[in-house]
Specification:
Layout (H helix, E strand, L loop, with lengths): L5 H25 L4 H14 L4 H29 L5 H21 L5 H20 L14 H18 L4 H10 L4 H26 L10 E2 L2 E2 H22 L4 H24 L2
Helix pairs in contact: 1-2, 1-9, 2-3, 3-5, 3-8, 3-9, 4-6, 4-8, 5-10, 6-8, 7-8
């Protein structure tokens, strides 16, 4: 593993604490999952500190998956107290989400950093476009009645969520609302999806990167414990302030600003893959 120098350690820690604060505020303010912010920011931080680009994206994704576990548990408990989780949907989708996420974690061993960046960039750009649209996309009046079809949908969500380092909300909520699922129950259920996705996906990233050279110090496979340990506490603290701030600001305008931020981030990541 690549070692920290004393000159790197302090600014690296500061950058991660700021990342956690930024992620927490956005999560509380807009209800977005932390991974969609953590992954690109971590990738940039690893670039700035000259960690090998061959492993930077894998470590960013794997570390993000670890941060999702405690935040998903806290979010799930809060939504469950409000009766906002559709447990019948969780029971139906859960095994397929788990399988898809585990497959995504294992697949990371065979995908280079450019493939992960391309997947993240394309899907994040799609999320940004959907978030910035004045009207939500509606495909049908209800979820498909055929359970195998729902199983395929949820397995695909788990697979790509794992490779992006995100929880269930970023892809599952727009998918559910496109089938006219009530948005508050979609968000609540997605909090449980995050835990189901992140555990097997993280395990896959640990296995995939176990003996790989060029990782930051204190890493289990592609999961960096230092980064996660600094991001999670600040993120959970600042999420409360973000939620309070949301009541005094217009959410639609904020979502458009975040959609623009996400689009620029996604395009930058795609440029590193496809640009000249």
């Amino acid at each position: 593993m690549t070692a920290f120098t004393v000159q790197q350690l302090i600014p690296f820690a500061i950058a991660l604490v700021v990342t956690g604060a930024f992620t927490g505020v956005l999560a509380g303010l807009l209800g977005v999952g932390g991974g969609i912010v953590i992954v690109p920011v971590l990738f940039v931080i690893f670039e700035l500190f000259d960690f090998p680009l061959e492993t930077a994206m894998h470590v960013a994704v794997g570390t993000s998956l670890l941060t999702i576990i405690p935040t998903s548990i806290a979010s799930m408990r809060a939504h469950n107290r409000r009766g906002a989780i559709d447990w019948s949907l969780v029971r139906l989708w859960g095994p397929f989400l788990f399988f898809g996420a585990a497959l995504g974690g294992i697949a990371s061993r065979f995908l280079g950093g450019d493939y992960l960046k391309a997947i993240f960039g394309i899907l994040a750009l799609a999320v940004a476009i959907n978030m910035g649209m004045p009207r939500k996309l509606i495909l049908a009046d209800a979820l498909p009645k055929r359970r195998p079809l729902q199983g395929v949908m949820s397995a695909v969500i788990g697979f790509f969520s794992a490779l992006m380092g995100i929880g269930g909300g970023t892809l599952a909520v727009p998918t559910l609302t496109a089938f006219s699922f009530p948005v508050h129950r979609a968000v609540g259920s997605a909090s449980a999806f995050g835990l189901i996705i992140s555990v097997p996906a993280m395990a896959g990233f640990i296995w995939s990167g176990w003996d790989v050279a060029g990782r930051p110090p204190y890493s289990l496979g592609y999961v960096n414990l230092v980064a996660a340990g600094l991001i999670v506490p600040m993120s959970m603290i600042m999420a409360r302030y973000g939620a309070s701030l949301a009541h005094s600001l217009k959410p639609d305008n904020l979502k458009r600003v975040f959609a623009a931020f996400l689009a620029v981030t996604a395009l930058r990541m795609l440029w590193t893959v496809f640009g000249a």
